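Sharing a chain and its predicted structure for anyone who wants a worked example. Both blocks are below, sequence first, tokens second.
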Amino acid sequence: GVNDMSIQKVSNSIISTPGLVVQVVTASSTSVASTTAASMTASNLTADITPSSSSNKILVMMCTSIYHSSDAAQSSVTIFRDSTNLGRDDRGIIQFSDFEDRFQANATMTLLDSPNTTSSVTYKLYFRNISTGMGTTYIGVDGTHQYVTLMEITG
């Protein structure tokens, strides 16, 4: 027969072990967004997560495509947690520069964030046209599959 004594219960000490994934949230989009603005512009690529402990971290992974319609131009992408830019205020996380021809590229960003809360937080892709007055910056071009994955990791 089955020995009931062999069934182990998950204890708080196991759940509090650092480095365990306790929650995963994903979202995707195939929508194109564009901007000519020099300020960071919100995209529709977004996901919300509610950490189970304020000491836990969130591994954030985002991927999109980016295209700039003008020669000799610069664009950048970044991730915001709610209203906080997790990259540099002026350049974001990834900057794209092309000094001879138009460009199209993939932008993949991964970072480990410490939101220090048990309230819902929103992670969103933002982008900008650094070269004001020089063309348009697009993300999600050619129906590219864009995604965001959020993983809550015990702290």
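Comments welcome. The two ends are 40 Å apart (CA to CA).
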